[in-house]
Write a structure and sequence with these properties.
This protein is an alpha+beta fold. The chain folds into three domains: about 10-140, Beta-Lactamase; about 155-310, Alpha-Beta Plaits; about 320-465, Up-down Bundle (Four Helix Bundle (Hemerythrin (Met), subunit A)). The protein is about 50% helix and about 15% strand. It is built from 15 helices and twelve strands. The protein has helices spanning about 20-30, 50-55, 60, 75-90, 135-150, 160-175, 190-195, 200-215, 240-255, 285-300, 345-365, 370-400, 405-425, 430-450, 455-465; strands at about 35-40, 45, 95-100, 110-115, 125-135, 180-190, 220-225, 230-240, 260, 265, 270-280, 305-310. Strands 2-1-5-4-3 form a five-stranded antiparallel beta sheet. A five-stranded mixed beta sheet has the order 7-8-6-11-12, sandwiched between helices. A two-stranded antiparallel sheet has the order 9-10. Helix 7 (about 190-195) crosses helix 8 (about 200-215) and helix 12 packs antiparallel against helix 13. The chain is elongated and about 110 Å long.
Length: about 475
């Protein structure tokens, strides 16, 4: 015989002799949160620990229409609802999960709970909910996790977490496909800040740098500190290199703004940023890390306060060999390792000039060559030559090359000759001899293999100094 319902809902529990008082005492004195509900989630009984855990009174929890799912945040509802459907269908008899509950004051509490269908009882099946507050254990676990994956000073990701997220990002990029970018960031002139203002101010500057980095990023990008004043930003799901470059530009601009301490000290620093991207510069985590670190170091050696894009290619070198491009023309120029200056960017641009020159000469020596196509190719080559000259002059100035004025004058003379050559082509003629004289005799042999070698000794000195910098990443 079923008992009459009580005001607290426990009347749905069968009363077999003296079992009901015992049942009440067990529920009341249990050291964990206990609740009884039906399969629709309507609460029928709760004990004091359950009330304390959820931050709600007994009367509130047992109010008609109050469901267990009303204690859950929105992100927990789909999995909870699916689990309850399985219980109602009889597919499952219980489920266990660590979830967050929303307390009456809006706070969240972590609970390890078990929801199980009672196998004996009234005609209407009931469900027992066991809830154990694990908030403190979760806090301790998170603290240990932070110690393992976070930089203790800035609270940014450390090397271990960065590598873990980089592997995940590359794995996803290979499936979808999409790009991944790494920005290596070194704070320029950080040591003088430590020397002038002390290590406390230096630590403050590193924490402020971390804050500014985060302000420049999306929620799912990762900023990490590798140690000292070196930071790395991981940008997954990159559609185009230009989008990663915009992030780098925001960071460069942000870190160039003065840092003002609480007592009014103004600190001015800047950043050297090296950028490497998958799949353009690398296929593995180690390769991408090395390419980004190398680009950052080149940014520092090139004058600091700038962004340098890695020019590494997938074969592990700086550029593909020029003769990788099939050409059938009568004349070819071939790159040789002896032509290398030792600077990754100068050599990449020189090698690219060989490749484009071959394409142009191949086209110009064909019988069916169209003057318009030859003109378009020549214009492309000359744009790259002009950009290379400008870049080279900027580097030579930063390296304090003593003969830079004479070198720049030779650049201007070659560009003037190029304009004259363009005038000839616009008259619908294809002066192959003039092309050969300009590209091979004047630009490649007369300038690149002769004049440029005059600053190679300076580059060797810079490279010897660079040997003290040995990247130790990705291991």
């Amino acid at each position: 015989m079923r008992p009459e319902p009580s005001t607290h809902g426990c009347g749905d529990i069968p009363n077999e002799g003296a079992s009901l008082p015992l049942y009440r005492e067990i529920i009341e004195k249990a050291g964990v949160g206990l609740a009884v509900m039906d399969l629709d989630g309507n609460l029928r009984e709760v004990n004091p620990v359950f009330c304390e855990t959820t931050g709600r009174s007994r009367d509130e929890l047992l109010t008609p229409g109050f469901h267990l799912r009303m204690l859950l945040p929105p992100e927990e509802l789909p999995s909870h609802d699916e689990a309850m459907r399985a219980l109602r269908r009889g597919d499952e008899q219980s489920y266990r999960k660590t979830v967050q509950l929303v307390r009456s004051d809006g706070g969240l509490v972590w609970v390890d709970w078990v929801v199980a269908v009672l196998q004996s009882g009234p005609d209407v099946p009931l469900v027992l909910v066991t809830a154990i507050d694990v908030t403190e254990q979760k806090r301790v676990q998170d603290a240990f996790r932070d110690m393992s994956f976070r930089d203790p000073l800035t609270k940014l990701a450390n090397r271990r977490l960065l590598l873990d997220r980089l592997r995940t990002a590359l794995s996803r990029a290979r499936r979808e496909p999409c790009g991944v970018a790494l920005l290596f960031i070194d704070v320029d002139n950080f040591k003088p800040v430590n020397d002038t203002f002390g290590h406390d101010v230096g630590d403050w500057l590193l924490k402020e740098t971390a804050r500014r980095l985060l302000d420049c990023l999306r929620g799912y990008d990762t900023a990490a500190r590798l140690g000292g004043d070196e930071f790395v930003v991981l940008i997954p799901d990159v559609a185009q290199q230009a989008s990663a470059m915009r992030v780098a530009e925001r960071i460069l601009g942000s870190l160039a703004q003065p840092f003002i301490t609480d007592d009014g000290k103004q600190i001015q620093v800047s950043a050297s940023i090296g950028m490497a991207t998958y799949p353009d510069n690398a296929q593995s985590e180690r390769e991408l890390l090395h390419a980004g670190d190398e680009a950052m170091y080149l940014a520092k050696k090139s004058g600091r306060n700038r962004i340098v894009q890695s020019r590494r290619r997938l074969d592990g070198g700086v550029v593909h060999p020029v003769d990788d491009d099939p050409v059938s023309g009568l004349v070819q120029v071939r790159w040789d390792a002896a032509y290398a200056s030792g600077n990754v960017f100068i050599d990449a641009e020189h090698c690219e000039l060989f490749r484009q020159s071959n394409q142009l000469l191949d086209l110009a020596t064909r019988r069916d060559a169209e003057p318009a196509a030859v003109l378009a190719n020549l214009q492309r080559v000359l744009r790259n030559v002009s950009a290379h000259f400008e870049h080279e002059e900027r580097l030579l100035s930063e390296w304090q090359f003593p003969d830079i004025e004479n070198h720049a004058a030779k650049h201007r003379s070659l560009l003037k000759h190029a304009e004259q050559l363009l005038d000839l082509l616009t008259e619908n003629s294809i002066p192959v001899g003039d092309l050969l004289e300009f590209l091979v005799a004047k630009v490649i042999h007369g300038h690149m293999l002769t004049e440029d070698t005059k600053y190679f000794g300076l580059l060797k000195t810079i490279l010897r100094e660079a040997q003290v910098h040995q990247p130790q990443l990705g291991g």
